[in-house]
Design brief:
single chain; about 270 residues; alpha/beta; TIM Barrel; 6-stranded parallel sheet; two-stranded antiparallel ribbon; 8 helices; 12 strands; about 35% helix
Length: about 270
Amino acid sequence: MSVVPVFLYHAVSDDPPPWLARFTVGPRTFTEHLDMIADSGLRVVPLRRLVAALLGGPPVPPRSAVLTFDDGYADFASTVAPLLAARRLPSTLYVTTDALEPSGRGPFPSTATLTWDQVRELDAAGVEIGGHTVTHPQLDTLPRTAVREEVGGCKRRIEDVLGHRVDSFAYPHGYSSRTVRALVREAGWTSAAAIRADSAFSSEGDDPLRFARLMVRSDTGRDRFALWTGGEGAPVAPFAEGLRTRGWRAYRRARAATGRPYRAIPA
């Protein structure tokens, strides 16, 4: 069974707001990561190649990797896309639709996000645009009706803007549940990116509706990233959901039920 590193980035910036700093790498570090991926012999393939394999299609080539980016920050257009284009590397960008609306009342405080015009341009340039909900909530703490609105409304908005079908979804914060995954499938998404055990490799035996990713953060050192490019240093999905994950979900649900939701992003 092939080990597939699916790298997850958020912001690529030298000056992120404090709440986002932990999930940000600088442009120089990101460039170094791209060089390390190339030097390791990994071949970056479009996400759809991995999803096709997870759905029973042809296997991905040996030593494949995938690049994904969450949320839809403005630095993707200004910094990330040119670096990827120069190397002809495919990528998937999961956007939170309310963050792109001109109202300015999106879910990410004090952070510049993409515009819909930029998303259209990225789509036309070959970047796969995926969905990341409408408002970036913790889906596994919401009632079914709210989950349907978040995952279905996101899909409809993106498809309306781009004028074509979109298939790839990512769970905000990586949080899902059996019910959430069923509703994601019901909405018409064919794949959904998760975060398993903080960071894990995907594989051809992974679940297409919660495939694992390696989350790259500000404290992801060069040595750890080098291990990842060599197929080491993290568990390999699929694996059973752990007690810690179930306990954390129960805690967040209890907070939400009492009107004191856990805030993963500051208001």
